Amino acid sequence: MRRKHHGTAEEADIDMTPMLDIVFIMLIFFIVTTSFVKETGIDVSRPQASTTERQERGNILIAIKPNGDVWIAKRKVELRAVRANVERLHAENPEGTVVIIADKEAQTGTLVEVMDQVRLAGVYNVSIAAQNP
């Protein structure tokens, strides 16, 4: 009589659950701590100024093109709609400041009108972007 030897060797399984938990937690951590770069959506040739100061926190960016077009959050807006857009963006982030990036060929009147609309929206911390020489 022959006995057949059936091995009952357990298969070595690796439990992946703890590793997946750690990877998921790290993913959430990196998403939450990532700072996103905000852009106006257009290229503007800024004027040069020797007395510029670097401002790290410009949360609402407004661009003015040489032809007078106003851009906020990568979309063109009418001058009369600047106030409503700034009010909405400022409500989302009350600590935010406004940075106006006007092209050096843009009309001064358009810049003043945009600044006026921003102040009417309740934001008094307004900066004008310039380029270091």
From TrEMBL:
Keywords: Cell membrane, Membrane, Protein transport, Transmembrane, Transmembrane helix, Transport. One of its GO terms (cellular component) is plasma membrane. Its main location: membrane. It is found in: Cell membrane. Signal peptide: none annotated. The chain crosses the membrane at residues 20-37. Belongs to the ExbD/TolR family. This is Biopolymer transport protein ExbD/TolR. The lineage of its organism: Bacteria, Pseudomonadati, Pseudomonadota, Gammaproteobacteria, Chromatiales.
